[in-house]
Amino acid sequence: MAISDQKIDFPIFSNTPHVYLDSAATSHKPQSVVDTISRFYQHDYGTVRRGLYQLSASATRLFEESRTQIANFIGAGSAAEIVFTSGATESINLVANSYLRPRLQPGDEILITTLEHHANFIPWQQLAHAAEANLVILPLDENLDINMEAARIKCSPKTRMVALGHISNVTGSINPVREMIDLAHTCGAKVLIDGAQAVAHTALHVKDLDCDFYTLSGHKIYGPTGVGVLYGKEDILNDMPPYRFGGEMILEVTNEYANFKKSPQRFEAGTPNIAGVIGLGAAIRYVRDVSLQRIIQHEEHLTQYLLSELNRIKVPIIGNPGERSSLVSFLVDDIHPHDVGTILDSLGIAVRAGHHCAQPLMRYLGIPATVRASIGWYNDESDIDALIHGIEQVRKIMK
């Protein structure tokens, strides 16, 4: 069977017959990204910043070009506001430990939501414990959206940081980040937005959003694993102490003291994931060449098709957000989600089944897990049809 036009760009679909509906966990890579990484290792590989020879100069140029591309893609003010990390998780931990830890006092408050992925929950929880501060968790409304009335009550002069996901990895809700940012700044707090689920699925301009920090992972936007980004306002980054120590982030070292470079180098100690950064730049170019708006429209169509088909076969959907991204969590009768996922896999359909690293939300809902289908640019209606047929087969098998 011929594959669809958008699948042609992704070599895995020429070799793997599976229906892949788990892009919220990680996305597949287009040939252009694979080729860019391979070409770099074969023709341009060298360490960055430190060498006087041509290979080092070439690697440095490609590395910094990726930084500029990413800054432009997310609407940062300058490339100096783009710090390369191993992913969104490290980016959040960097902010928690480098920005907030030195400033947090007993009785201060950190405001998060019930929707958060563990990566944007545990760093703040552990920091609050260590500093004898308070972790304030916002409740949800009946649709599983953030309760903004509660947010306006709970955000106070004691609030030092508001941290929330741009898009929930369980409900797919697109959170009111601009409203939350304005509210937090009114209270005198800084804001971190976890954009891991958003960067490949929504137009983004961090300068217009006015968030203080924004995090993302490369492997969720058709790039390689092991590379991510922390965006931070330049003046804030330059006022933060380094999170890790090592080479390249140093201006001067004596036996008694060290002076550190400005952002972004002060947070990029050691040899970075050079090929990963260059591969992420290639992924950004791919998305731009296809057109992010075209990707969004394609995913919106498939998401609505998925929702209508799930409703048709009477599969209950978790949450009814006012704005939804391209993922849907659901339950199939009283069948455990792990059984659903395992049977679907035997039919060649890859979905996520579990608590999705969101155990506080699962406890809030009173369920152990859900099944989650998430859509990427390479999906089409035939994938949705296969999933619906698969769910009907699950019901027959488990009946």
Fraction of residues in H or I helices: 40-55%
Total number of helices: 15
The CATH superfamily of the largest domain is identified as Type I PLP-dependent aspartate aminotransferase-like (Major domain)
Order of helices and strands: HHEHHEHEHEHEHEHEEHEEHHEHEEHEH
Work out the number of β strands.
Answer: 14
Category from helices, strands and their pairing: alpha/beta
CATH class of the largest domain: Alpha Beta
What is the fold named in CATH at topology level of the largest domain?
Answer: Aspartate Aminotransferase, domain 2
Weakly predicted, low-confidence segments: none
CATH architecture classification name of the largest domain: 3-Layer(aba) Sandwich
Distance between the termini: 32 Å
Arithmetic mean of pLDDT = 96
Principal-axis shape equals globular
- Provide the domain count: 2
Protein described:
The protein is α/β, with parallel strands linked by helices. It folds into two domains: 5-28 and 291-398, Aspartate Aminotransferase, domain 1; 33-288, Aspartate Aminotransferase, domain 2 (3-Layer(aba) Sandwich). Helices cover 41% and strands 15% of the residues. The chain has 15 helices and 14 strands. The chain has helices spanning 5-8, 12-15, 31-44, 54-74, 88-100, 122-131, 148-154, 177-186, 206-209, 234-237, 274-290, 292-312, 337-346, 359-365, 381-398, and strands at 19-20, 82-85, 109-113, 134-138, 159-165, 190-194, 213-217, 228-232, 250-253, 258-260, 327-330, 349-350, 352-354, 370-374. The strands form four sheets. A seven-stranded mixed β-sheet has the order 2-8-7-6-5-3-4, with helices on both faces. Strands 11-14-13 form a three-stranded antiparallel β-sheet, with helices on one face. A two-stranded parallel sheet has the order 1-12. α12 runs parallel beside α15. The longest helix is centred in the first third of the chain and has 21 residues, at 54-74. The radius of gyration is 22 Å and the shape is globular. The chain starts with a helix and ends with a helix.
